[in-house]
User: Fold this.
Amino acid sequence: FSFACNGMNIKDIAHLRFKDIEEDRIIFFRSKTLNTSKANLKPITVYLNDYSLSIIKKYGNENKEPKSLVFDILEEGLSAHQERTKIKVFTRFINQHIKKLASANDITEKISTYWARHSFATSAIRKGASMEFMQESLGHKNLKTTQNYFAGFDNETKKEFAQTLMDF
Assistant:
């Protein structure tokens, strides 16, 4: 779900409410940004695809009132400390299962939820998205931060580019 939703981090997923879903998109403010920036807050828009919609349908809360949380990760009335703990425990739960899946499929076991964000950025850029597009999609204020998410181009992409370089 994170990868399919612009690499949304687990804390933001935990805070999603049904009021954040408008027709075919989610519009939200990063929790991290709400805590660090008070001026010029920019919402992030995530267009939903069939996969992300299926996750909401399968794992989303039955109560779809606007103020209801989309996923049953947090509950109302938690202190900041309790909320951090719940998100940390949920993230650990996901990471443990991702590592089992990765191991079963001969993928490095150093994988974590954070990979979804970086993989989203790298995949989108490799498919032609600009750094500026990615900056907005990830909710970064500084383009340098976005550039740090990009893993680079693979050799096949470089080879394909070299072959088309002289196509005028």
In short: The two ends are 40 Å apart (CA to CA).
